[in-house]
Input
Amino acid sequence: MFKPGSPEWKARIARMLADEEGQPMRWWFLSFAAPGKSLGAVLVEARGPTSALRLTHRLGINPGGQVMTSEVLAEYAARIPESMRHRLCSRKEWESL
Output
């Protein structure tokens, strides 16, 4: 495991983003947590999990902590209200769906 911010880490991220570059846009669910606590989750459209995570940083919707990513099939993503896409939502909001 590389230390975040190290040259090796940056090179690995660059390779992962390059690998995702040719992929089609898909929906990704990212759930953020700290020990014993949910920090929220987001649904974003990106080419892969690394670009999805990077997008959360660019949009200012990454609360930190550990992250779990999962691809969401388009037919399921279509059921998510527009108001809940590309923003950090609470666990309560997601459970209400």
In short: The mean pLDDT is 93.
